[in-house]
Amino acid sequence: MADFEERRSLLGDEDERFVGDREPQRGAGGTGGTGAMPAICDPRHLLHRVVVLVFMCFLGFGSYFCYDNPAALQTQVLQDLNLNTENFMRLYAWYSWPNVVLCFFGGFLLDRVFGIRFGTIIFSVFVCAGQIVFATGALLNHFWLMEAGRFIFGIGGESLAVAQNTYAVNWFKGKELNLVFGLQLSMARLGSTVNMNIMGWVYNKVAGLVGSPGYTALGGSLMIAAVTCLFSLICALVLAYLDKRAERILQKEQGGTGEVIKLTDVKDFPLTLWLIFIICVCYYVAIFPFIGLGQVFFIEKFNFSPAEARAVNSIVYIISAPASPILGFLVDKTGRNVVWVIIAVTATLAAHMMLAFTFWNPWIAMSLLGVSYSLLACALWPMVAFVVPEHQLGTAYGFMQSIQNLGLALIAMAAGAILDTRGYLVLEVFFCACICMALMAVVMLYFVDYLRGGDLNQSAAARARLQKEATSDAE
């Protein structure tokens, strides 16, 4: 679920193409006749935008915190509900299924149906309601109800990320945008990290209060986690008020995503874009399902305590928070996106092979996985903008997210079945095979791009020179 935001954060100012010209009106009449006001209350002032940014960052905190609740409580969910791993991984599959479709239409709903403010509140309600239903299912020991909760949660989760990015572009269009997207991504990873490291402690406290471990303690823990979703809903309400107020004061239009989804554009996608899709799916299916199953893996193979297992399992997210903006800056300054993707995929393969075939300290492999995961996002997602025209970007990114969610849903269930019948070694070999497919696709991408002029693998200087020449010709 985090990949859409990463792509946006790494595109930086290019995300301005997703919105129209909505620069705030300044000068006479720009304040709507309100006169002077304190800086913290003035939508044109940086201090006020910082206040908005705080609520903007926490808007998705609950969604990211609760997304990996099953991973943080893997042992407890399996034992308290008497589940096998295949059924456990269906909790992730049910999150992904609605987003196979909604990734196409989330931007359309925000633009044309709900509007950014009302749409954000609606999607936040879905996230909050989904987590409550999920927790209620655990309290009642009804697994089907937990699955329904994850489905409802998924309806809101990805679309809420679209809304968060839309708010960011509307409020910070210009030089501050890259920093804002980086901060949003860091807050998302912070939510995932806190979840991984605190939910086990919460479960133990709840179990002590109710008298013993079990599904009642599990449901209570998940209900406590729902508080973070309620907090994010409050942030959505505050943002709606602040945005409405700024619209009145600055006399500007309500923002939208600007995404235009046209399925007919798919037939015009070049081979290079389809290879990017293959890399995306084959890579991420070896990351998120592994993290979802990682806690028990580290307990069984490396004899870690549950707390140690949760800590090492969360290191990918911990590293991603500060590394993503730094590596994004590196890729921006050097170019050569395809080469960076090759490095990232190769490093990820090395990390999975270390976990599968050695007993080296898993902190080494997981740290390498965290860096390579961040690097791939920095280099892969912006490449879409290099191979399709601007009017097809919404369709291309929507299709990319859609097939990514389809792959995650299918592989999540497959991974659970493999683990139940074959064990962790065969599962790691399976993940290595997925990464090998991604590596073959990126090597093919390198040669196809080379034969077509090497646009994707240009240096940053060459790309800037071509853009400057194109601008001069247009003038």
What labels describe this entry?
475 residues; mainly alpha; 20 helices; 77% helix; globular; transmembrane helix
Description:
The chain has 475 residues and is an all-alpha fold. Helix content is 77%, strand content 0%. α14 crosses α16 (362-380) and α15 runs antiparallel to α19. The radius of gyration is 22 Å and the shape is globular. The relative contact order is 0.15. Residues 46-452 form the Major facilitator superfamily (MFS) profile domain. One of its GO terms (molecular function) is transmembrane transporter activity. Pfam families: MFS_1.
Q: Overall mean pLDDT score?
A: 84
Fraction of residues in H or I helices:
over 70%
Instruction: Tally the helices.
Output: 20
Low-confidence stretches: 4-34
Radius of gyration: 22 Å
Structural class: mainly alpha
State the assembly state of the protein chains: single chain
N to C succession of SSEs: HHHHHHHHHHHHHHHHHHHH
Distance between the termini: 41 Å
Query: For the report, how would you describe the main beta sheet?
Result: none
User: Percent of residues in beta strands?
Assistant: under 5%
Question: How many strand units?
Answer: 0
Shape: globular
